[in-house]
Design brief:
The chain is α+β, with helices and mostly antiparallel strands and 80 residues long. The protein has one domain. It contains three helices and three strands; from the N terminus they run H-H-E-E-H-E. It has a three-stranded antiparallel beta sheet with strand order 2-1-3, sandwiched between helices. A hairpin with a 2-residue loop joins strand 1 and strand 2. The protein is globular.
């Protein structure tokens, strides 16, 4: 696949993951409050309170972190 098409495919994939995250926020808050979650193919593949160990787990599971959506889940809404 050409690099440009791979890039477009990657963006579309992240859009799907973000949409899934948005639709499942309440469920994720209930289960993963105050944790980072790694989402791939519309499912949580890993979760943890600290980013670096989560990143390591993603790699150990054979995923490229660049292809995984990582979000922090919290019931407390923060303004950055």
């Amino acid at each position: 696949m050409e690099p440009e098409l791979m890039f477009i495919d990657s963006i579309k994939s992240m859009e799907r993951e973000l949409a899934w995250f948005g639709h499942h926020t309440k469920d994720l808050e209930a289960k993963y409050d105050e944790q980072f979650v790694a989402i791939k193919d519309e499912k949580v593949i890993a979760a943890g309170r600290n980013f670096e160990p989560l990143l390591k787990k993603i790699k150990q599971e054979g995923f490229d972190p660049a292809d995984v959506l990582i979000e922090f889940v919290s019931k407390i809404k923060r303004i950055l």
